[in-house]
Amino acid sequence: MASIKKRPNGMWRARYRDPAGREVARHFARKVDAQRWVDEATTALVTGQYVDPAAGKVTFRDYAEQWRTAAPHGPATQDKVRRSLERHVYPTFGRMAMRSVRPTSVQAWVTALPLAPSTARVMLSYVIAIFRAAVRDRVIVASPAEGIRPPTEGRAEVYIPEPAQLEVLRGRLPERYRAVLDLVVGAGLRQGEVFGLEVDGLDFLAGRELEVRQQLRWVSPDPVHLAPPKTVEAERTIPLAQVTLDALAAHLAAWPARRVAIPDRTDRRRREPRQKAAQLVFTTEHGQPMTRPSWSMIWQPAARAAGIPERVGLHALRHYYASALIHHGESVKVVQRRLGHSSATTTLNTYAHLWPDSDDRTRQAVEAAVVALSASAPPHPQAR
């Protein structure tokens, strides 16, 4: 029940009871304002859209942490989201009450982010998700992040090494790790998939293929461990050329795989990892699973000698593999499956510029048709 009464001091006291039976009251100088406030609250109560005014007092950081820990993210994504919020979002919105954040504040924040457009869009996606959850939880009435324009994003630059650079790179890598280059160039694996590969994932005889069914993960504060592939689509079978198989066979002959004790988190149903004796194809010189710092110390000197730009890593060889498939006429769907992308859209967003231009294909098709027609046409009769 709602009511409006005039106080002895001339103010109008408006009040109503929320769904929990608690009285909510405000004072207004004008009766019309008090009536409007009561009417809005009554409408919200009747339509089920009521939001407790006190709920919006929670700070952005406190609510965002509730959202983050409840989200169905894997350990790696959890860690990434936490670091992103602490570094790029909380300094601006962390201490603000959820109900006090305005669309202009969100727009100004994302516009001023000192990040690449693609990264800024990811930061904005977190903020949008947090405010949408707050609306569903009836913490706020509406999200201030809807309709925010992210920074303009051009096509992501894809660095593809030249064959001559790969020759130098291979020569500068320690012999023990040259087959890493051969494998990524020949199969397009991600870095974690390379160092999580076990011997039983290789078929040297009948199938001449490789199965990607796990990866090596480095997620702080957990120790290095085996984990499922990045996505469901990343679990795949890749046909291997004989030259790639030969390189892997030579590597294993020179450095036989030994069993390495490592935590195994590949079974998503298990809360705690089990210990596994894994036969990893690539390990450190001490026979331990590779770590990011260990591989960086191996890769960086060789990459610099080959003229590969700083901050360009093993992923560049994956781009080389993709470009080879496209150059030899493989379709978008085939390239998607070989790379383990979650969708063809991801493949096109990354490599669309590598497929032949439609104008070129039109010219080639017409030229081929005209040549074929000319070859089959009877000789033109001579004019009399």
Automatic annotation (TrEMBL):
Tyr recombinase domain boundaries: 156-367
UniProt name for this protein: Tyrosine-type recombinase/integrase
Keyword DNA-binding applies: yes
Domain named Core-binding (CB): residues: 58-135
Organism: Pseudonocardia kongjuensis
Family membership noted in the UniProt record: Belongs to the 'phage' integrase family.
Lineage: Bacteria, Bacillati, Actinomycetota, Actinomycetes, Pseudonocardiales
Domain of life per record: Bacteria
Keyword entries, A-Z: DNA recombination, DNA-binding
Pfam families from the UniProt entry: Phage_int_M, Phage_integrase
